[in-house]
Structures are given as structure tokens and as C-alpha cells.
Amino acid sequence: MKGVRQTNQRGIALVVVLLIVALISILATQMAGRLQLNVVRAQNIKENNQAYWYALGAEEFARSSLSTLSTLSPDNTNLSQPWAQVFEYPVLGGSIKAELYDMQSCFNLNAINSTFDPSQQGEPEGEEQEIQGVPTEPPTPPTPTQPENGRSFSQQAFFNLAEMLINDNFTADTITDSLSDWIDPDDRPSNFGAEDIDYESRVSPYLAANSPMSSKTELRLVNGIGEGLQDQWLANLLPLVCVIPETSLKLNVNTVKEEHAHVLAAVLGDTLQSAQAIISNRPPEGYANLDEFKRLPAVTALNLQPEQLDWFAVNTKYFKLSTTAQYNNAQFKLNTLFSVDGGTVTVIRREFGGF
Hints:
The structure is a single chain. The protein is built from ten helices and eleven strands. It is elongated. The protein has helices at residues 2-72, 153-166, 169-183, 196-200, 230-237, 261-268, 272-280, 290-294, 297-300, 306-309; strands spanning 87-91, 94-102, 107-108, 130-131, 134-135, 241-242, 251-252, 312-313, 318-327, 330-341, 344-352. The protein starts with a helix and ends with a strand. By secondary structure, it is an alpha+beta fold. It has two domains: 2-103 and 318-352, Pantoate--beta-alanine Ligase, Chain: A,domain 2 (2-Layer Sandwich); 107-116 and 148-313, Ribonucleotide Reductase Protein R1, domain 1 (Orthogonal Bundle), CATH 1.10.40.60.
């Protein structure tokens, strides 16, 4: 009996030892797995940080380039200048791709409710003339008329853009008035618009912004836009619009590309074919000054009001830099909005990941 007990005790001890070895093996495997995960995580963080700093380096290079552009060509911005070229540069372990976009070659959504101030136009061309020693006052600028439908000229311009893309007057009316209500500070809805009371009645209620937009992706929240139009119409609209921290509309006629001729056509109130012709016949270095553009037969034939003529420019104040930095397996995207004032270039906002 004594031998049997010793054998049983040895068997139990062996089982205990095997359990301990199994437990240690499991713990060791878990520790090795976690260690490997932490190593990979640290490597990913390192690579992402490096890609981030590469992107910031591209941003600083773009800032310097825009400062130089503003100094050398303060009154003219066109697509023949170096800023309009795509920048691609290999770096240690990766690459940097950066592209500048003129944020005044698109329709500024925040300008839909813009108003015209004739006092900002300055004096008309020419000096005051004297008649028998008495200086005459410059003529008073004509008061611009409004479109027959009661909208402002800027609202009508956005309606023109929407109608070209949708080809449906009712939907274009709804989108135009709703966008105007989304931005204006009051809570009174326009004819086809929507205010808080309309948004609060939805399944997932929210309020109108009643302030300028900070991103054009806010369009998805505006009444009439997110209802069956996102897949097609919104995808066509987004490349043609932008958001800058100003409520005035300024379109650089030197940087509007032919594929974005819808914007020029909408602002002019002309046909798409006419706008495409204006862009295709534009000098390679753009128009030297704004008067050269205004004297175009296609423009003079439209008899534009002073407010409408004030929308056009040949230089740009706002640029967006889209940067993609690659380092090993990490990729970092950065969108930066610049404001150019003289030789000073300021970062207005940054978007990580970007749209």
C-alpha cells in the first residue's frame, strides 16, 4: 500500500508541475504578444510623427513660397506661376506631395448673403475737374438694382450654380434659400428656406448655424441638400465651392480652371459655354488687370451692375495647401488654409485627414 501511495503522490506532483509549466507558457506567450504589439505601436507612432513633421515642413515651404509670390507679384495671381504646380519631393524613408489651391477660384458659401457697399469702391477713374476754378464732385455711383425675384445678386449667383448642376428650379430654390437661412443670423425662413423650427422637427433634431460656415461639409446639414442629392449632386458641387473667413465674394478670373467654369458662369449670370470660352481664350499669364477682363465683349454684353463687377479680381488672398506625407508604412494628410496679406502669410486653420 505504501508503494501505491507514493506512486499516486508522484502522479499528482507531475500533474501540478505540468499545470504550472502550462500556465507559465501561457503567461510568457501573452507577454511576448503584448511586447510585440507595443513595439509595433511605438514604431507606428514614430512613423506617424515623422510623416506629420514632413507635412509641417511642406507647409512651411509653402508659406515661404506664398510670401515670395506676394512680394514679387502682389497684384496678379495666375496659373502660370510656380505655386500652381504640384510639388513632389522624395525624402528619407518616404515622400511629400503638396498642392496649392486658390480659394478664390470657387464660390465662397459664406458670401451668399453679401451686401454691396458703394463707398468701398473708391472714387471713379480720373481726377476731379475744375470749372471756372470750382472743383466738381465725382458722380455718385449708380444704385444697383436687385434681381426680379427679390433675391440679392449673390443669392442669385448661387441659384445659377445650383440650377446648372441640378436642372430643377424648385430644388435650386430650396437649396439657395435654405443655405441663406443657415448662415443669416435671424430665425425668419425665406420663401423656400428653413430655420430652427424645420430642423427641430426631424428625427434627429438640430439647429441652424445662423453664422458663417467653417467647412463646406456643413452643406450636408442644410435643408434640401441631404435628401437624395448627396451621391450625385453634392459630389459635383463640392469641387466648385469653398469656405473662407469672409462674407464677400471675390473670384479670381485668372485662376478659374475650365473644368470649374460653372462658377464663372454662375457669377456672370451667363451660359456655361460662354464661360468656358472666356477661360479657354484667357492669356497664359492671365489678365494683367481687372479692366482688361471687364472690357471683354462677352462681359460688357451682360451689362453687369457695380455689385457684380466688384466680385471679380486678378489676385488672391486665400490659398489652401493639400499635403500628403509618406514615411515607411505611415501616411499623413494635412490641409492648411493660408491668408496672404502683403508679405505676411498666416495659417487660418488646419484639417488633419482632410476632405
